[in-house]
Specification:
Length: 286
């Protein structure tokens, strides 16, 4: 039987907008000493703005943006949403013969009989297209048409208002290791990690690499590991962690389903609050 105070703990958590799917997760949460975060949508708002479009000589930047917006037409990735928002025209579906999202890479599509690639350097390499490296900070979307590089779109996301507080609260609660995993570039990851005071970050990861990283961290963790994510790609990692925590408001159904705990208001500062509450509950139970 489940001690009554567990219900008190779960009830107390739900009042804070923290939904715990079972008393065993409260117990596991009380022993967390490592918290691993996904970046986009978890530590950052996950809403990108297009800040610049750099077209190659002789290429119209509006053309680059229009082709990218059409290629991203069927994607609801935060990056795709930002590109479509920046495009002032309307998306003409008749121009799109085919579009494929390649997770952790970008999209490849057939627009007006042209093969269009929109994504990171990995996508370009995978399709044998060249690209130009750039020193800019921000997330970079390279655009290639029929194998020729036409330019890149720079997009920027911002860290959540309470993310700095969330990390310092976790450290204050005795969580030793706060780690960020991301598929984004090293430059972006480094800047976010420095701003938030994270202990560790790993960048340029494919969704499968994130599972591998979590398994590696699990091997060396003394206490339990909590993973916090929001995306479709996060479901396998959420399942692998001792405690999977999903952002509920913006999170994908797959992430919410795979999680043990759901934060209704998407605030990372609620994680330290949940850990403290879980520990209090365990002290009452024992
Ligand atoms: P994160 O780890 O930050 O949550 P993802 O794993 O979703 O990010 O994506 C990793 C990288 O893959 C992105 O930074 C981007 O370079 C590329 N990417 C993913 N989806 C798209 C898309 N729809 N359009 C363009 N690029 C994409
Ligand atoms: Mg993500």
């Amino acid at each position: 039987s489940v001690p009554l105070s567990f219900f008190g703990g779960i009830g107390g958590a739900s009042k804070l907008g923290i939904l715990v799917k079972g008393s065993n997760y409260l117990e596991a949460l009380s022993e967390v000493d490592t918290v691993v975060f996904d970046k986009t949508g978890t530590l950052t708002n996950g809403t990108f703005n297009v800040v610049a479009i750099h077209a190659q000589d002789g290429v119209d930047p509006d053309y680059v943006l229009s082709m990218a917006a059409h290629a991203e037409a069927f994607s609801d990735h935060p990056i795709a949403v930002s590109v479509k928002e920046a495009y002032s025209g309307t998306i003409d579906q008749a121009r799109i013969a085919q579009a494929t999202e390649e997770s952790g890479h970008g999209v490849s599509a057939k627009i007006d009989e042209h093969v269009v690639l929109v994504g990171n350097d990995r996508l370009m390499s995978a399709h044998g297209s060249n690209w130009h490296d750039c020193e800019l900070t921000g997330t970079i979307l390279h655009v290639a048409i029929d194998g020729s590089y036409v330019g890149h779109i720079v997009i920027a996301d911002v860290v959540k208002d309470d993310a700095v507080q969330a990390i310092s609260d976790l450290h204050a609660a005795g969580v030793e290791r706060c780690v960020m995993l991301t598929g984004d570039r090293k430059e972006v990851a480094r800047a976010v990690a420095a701003k938030l005071g994270l202990d560790e970050y790993h960048a340029q990861l494919l969704p499968g690499d994130k599972v591998e990283q979590v398994e590696r961290i699990l091997d060396s963790a003394r206490g339990n590991l909590a993973f916090v994510g929001d995306g479709i790609n996060d479901a396998p990692v959420l399942t692998r962690a001792d405690v999977g925590i999903a952002m509920g408001a913006m999170g994908s159904d797959a992430a919410i389903e795979a999680a043990d705990i759901v934060l209704m208001d998407d605030k990372p500062s609620n994680i330290a609050r949940a850990i403290r509450l879980a520990r209090r509950t365990m002290r009452i139970v024992h």
